[in-house]
Amino acid sequence: QVQLVESGGGLVQPGGSLRLSCVASGFAVNSYNMGWYRQAPGKEREWVAQISATGRRTDYADSVKGRFTISRDDAKNMVNLQMNSLELEDTAVYFCARFTGNLWGQGTQVTVSS
Questions:
Q1: Distance CA 111, CA 71 (A)
Q2: Could you tell me the CA-to-CA distances from 67 to 2, 10, 76, 105 in Å, in that order?
Q3: Pairing of the two strands 108-112 and 10-12
Q4: Distance CA 73, CA 62 (A)
Q5: One digit per residue, pLDDT tens: the chain, 114 residues?
Q6: Which of 57, 56, 58, 55 has the alpha carbon at shortest distance from 47?
Q7: CA-angle at 26, arms to 22 and 31, nearest 5°
Q8: DSSP 3-state of 31
């Protein structure tokens, strides 16, 4: 079965860190461009970061550049998102995505609150 399953979300204080993971099944993440999106309450889903199939290129939204890092663990067939210096505005449901075929995970909630 082809699917993506995210984990690692939770409640964190401003300035804190979280690491999101996305485990893929049914395909190899190193064969596709993969990314993370997020959707805050009342807002449209927005692109956060992506990593190329080769793993040599990563790109970030300006709002997270310098704070978030996308990476891949090919042995575990997993894509990760390390989030540091979290801000209140980072509160959202975070989704893992495979760009080819429009494949999405179910999402994981990240709440930044004091």
A1: 22
A2: 30, 17, 24, 23
A3: parallel
A4: 24
A5: 999 999 999 999 999 999 999 999 999 999 999 999 999 999 999 999 999 999 999 999 999 999 999 999 999 999 999 999 999 999 999 999 999 888 999 999 999 999
A6: 58
A7: 75
A8: helix
Q: Kindly provide the b/e burial profile for residues 84-114, where b requires at least 16 CB atoms within 10 angstroms of the residue's own CB.
A: eebeeebbbbbbbbbeeeebebebbebebee
The residue among 48, 49, 45, 7 whose CA lies nearest residue 24 is 7
The set of residues, in sequence order, having a beta carbon less than 8 Å from that of 80 and lying 6+ positions away, is: 19, 20, 21, 22, 70, 71, 72, 73
The three-class DSSP label of residue 90 is: helix
The residue with tokens 């989704």 is 95
φ/ψ region of 66 (left if φ > 0, alpha if ψ in -120 to 50, else beta) reads: left
